[in-house]
Design a protein that fits this description.
623 residues, alpha/beta, 6-stranded mixed β-sheet, 5-stranded parallel β-sheet
Length: 623
């Protein structure tokens, strides 16, 4: 075993991130094309700048030769860990770690299992603030450098933006995928703003020490009732989705963060949420090639670092009944051999019901590796999963060479993202934490990024209907407005609730807007110039949301419908005097919707999905 103490210089990953993120941040919001720089839609892989070269002395095969089997297997796993700090979690989080993993801190977890990565979650109390995240990242990297083979961690997160965001304010929150799809259609198919959004998001993640994002979603959402994808998809047109996926990959990787195309081979036409069940994809092979394949092929051609598998059964691609995550015909036969992907394949989370229904938790990690996966994400029982893979190698079911094949891909990815770059060693943990905080302050939630988010959002709102020319309202006339409707829990870090955010922004623009709950809205509607009603994933048939809209219409006051998540809501409600889609209920999108309502900005977005019975794909009105 080599002397791992000499790897101390690798622990300052956050410091490396500071330099990369600062450059990426300025590039993210600068001109679309700088002197000598690539255009936003340049077909070259976006990780060429500011891509960092591995340290000259890094030799992945030599590193693996000095690793024990347990250390090699540990590199395959990306686990959760509870707590805001690597070494000093709150007592409740320490107790959770001890109950689940037999250790009290995340640092001890990294050392015990020689982990390849940690995934951050809000519910695991990892994401209190950007500064705290950066300090956590630095502490975890210190733990990795001081234990086992001294290999740095690949720290990851689900930061898709829009409906799925683990890090909130003061970080920049950007429009999500379907909103960007609406923008692209409204600007003649340009993907420049999608790439710009990813570049901003990637710069901020890198500053927090996070070098792997589980985004973008490459699923083509062709089922309006899809319970798990929906607005997380760029849309229903496979070629438009493909172009946006490639653009975001170049944006993220241009900021030094590994992008992930998910969920292979395609989760966009499923009626079951794989978190709670095992979805069945009924597409034929020909339909898959036409609808589902193009975005993943585009991702591979764009140089995507990682592809995530889906826990779905796809009989046309593999009749065995195994979920795609455990299917060698799908992972190796199609993704590796047909599409030519040579990067890292990560499973979707292994604690999800979709992958646990057919096999036990001891078998799932082994079968995923046999299928061709490399990274095993968040197993429900990390100790059992690690022991099972080690036992499979010792029994001959898996070979050490097979494990090394995946570890080599993982190490090469870490090197490509700058994690092996030598950095100036720092004397104390306090100095490391201070440098991490400096990186955050230089790149996260800075004015240029917040301005970019607003500019992008202004071009996403879609005006679906305006038959009597109600919109835009004239704020100079100080119209009296009522805002009501559904108030879902706001995505991480937004101020919410949505009706209050919309009312505040309308008032700031000159209107006299008041937010009221649905129980009081119908009685309060008379006397207002208009009522804005926020709807959220309206179901088929009768529902409280349908009753509210009908009651408001019966008052005779003009009703403006604002679909704040899925744009399919108008098809399930009576027609209104005006109808808009925002695709997300984050502050940045609701403020943009208010600017459209008042004519402060003109509506540009176009529907990236059809609304059955009401509006075709590409529909959108203008002033």
């Amino acid at each position: 075993m080599p002397n791992h103490a000499s790897r101390r210089t690798l622990l300052t990953v956050a410091a490396v991130a500071a330099v990369t993120a600062a450059g990426a941040a300025s590039a993210a919001v600068g001109p679309a094309r700088g002197p000598g720089g690539p255009a936003p839609d340049d077909p070259r892989p976006g990780d060429r700048a500011p891509r960092r070269s591995p340290a000259p002395r890094f030799r992945p095969r030599e590193t693996m030769a000095g690793m024990s089997l347990a250390e090699l297997v540990g590199q395959l796993f990306v686990s959760r860990a509870y707590g805001h700090s690597a070494t000093g979690p709150d007592p409740e989080d320490a107790e959770r770690n001890e109950a689940l993993f037999g250790v009290r801190t995340a640092a001890e977890l990294v050392a015990r299992y020689h982990l390849g990565g940690i995934v951050y979650f809000g519910w695991a109390h990892n994401t209190r603030s950007p500064r705290q995240i950066a300090e956590l990242s630095a502490g975890l990297q210190r733990a990795a450098a001081d234990s086992g083979a001294g290999v740095p961690l690949l720290l990851s997160i689900d930061q898709e933006h829009g409906a799925v965001a683990r890090v909130g304010k003061p970080a920049t929150l950007l429009p999500g995928a379907m909103a960007l799809g609406a923008l692209a259609l409204g600007t003649g198919g340009s993907t420049a703003e999608a790439r710009r959004a990813a570049r901003v998001a990637g710069a901020e993640l890198a500053a927090m020490g996070i070098r792997h994002n589980y985004a973008p979603v490459a699923d083509v959402n062709v089922d309006p009732a899809n319970p798990v994808i929906g607005v997380r998809s760029f849309g229903a047109d496979p070629h438009a989705v493909a172009a946006l996926v490639a653009a975001q990959i170049r944006g993220y990787q241009g900021a030094g963060v590994a992008a992930t195309a998910k969920h292979f081979p395609g989760h966009g036409d499923t009626g079951t949420d794989s978190h709670v069940g095992l979805p069945l994809m009924r597409h034929t092979r020909a339909q898959w090639e036409e609808l589902d394949e193009p975005p993943f092929r585009a991702a591979v051609e764009a140089g995507v670092d990682v592809v995530m598998t889906a826990h779905i059964v796809f009989p046309a691609l593999d009749p065995s009944g195994d979920p795609a995550t455990l299917s060698r015909p799908i992972v190796t036969g199609i993704l590796r051999e047909r599409l030519g992907f040579r990067g890292v394949v990560v499973t979707d989370a292994l604690d999800m019901a979709g992958v646990r229904q057919k096999y036990g938790d001891d078998r799932v990690p082994v079968l995923a590796l046999k299928a061709g996966c490399d990274q095993l994400l968040n197993p429900p029982d990390l100790g059992l999963a690690h022991r099972s893979v080690v036992a499979a190698v010792e029994s001959g079911e898996l070979t050490r060479a097979r494990i090394e094949e995946s570890v080599l891909r993982i190490l090469e990815l870490k090197a490509r993202r700058g994690l092996f770059d030598a950095a100036e060693p720092l004397a104390t943990p306090a100095e490391e934490a201070a440098r991490a905080v400096d990186a955050v302050d230089a790149a996260v939630g800075i004015p240029a990024h917040l301005a970019a988010a607003g500019e992008i959002a202004d071009r996403t709102t879609t005006l679906l209907a305006n038959p009597v020319g109600l919109l835009p309202l004239d704020p100079a006339a100080r119209p009296l407005l009522l805002v009501t409707g559904t108030d879902p829990v706001s995505p991480t870090g937004t101020t919410g609730p949505p009706t209050a955010v919309l009312a505040r922004e309308l008032s700031a623009l000159g209107c006299r807007a008041t937010a009221l709950p649905p129980s009081r809205a119908v009685a309060a509607a008379p006397g207002n110039a208009a009522v804005l009603v926020c709807t959220y994933n309206v179901p088929e048939g009768d529902s409280p949301q349908r009753e509210l809209v009908a009651g408001l219409l019966a008052t005779g006051v003009p009703v403006v419908l604002v679909a704040i998540r899925n744009p399919y809501d108008p098809a399930r409600l009576p027609a209104c005097a005006a109808e808009l889609a925002t695709y997300t209920w984050t502050d940045v999108e609701l403020r943009a919707a208010a600017r459209v309502v008042t004519g402060t900005v003109r509506p540009v977005g176009r529907l990236p999905v059809p609304v059955p019975g009401r509006y075709p794909l590409g529909h959108g009105l203008a002033y």
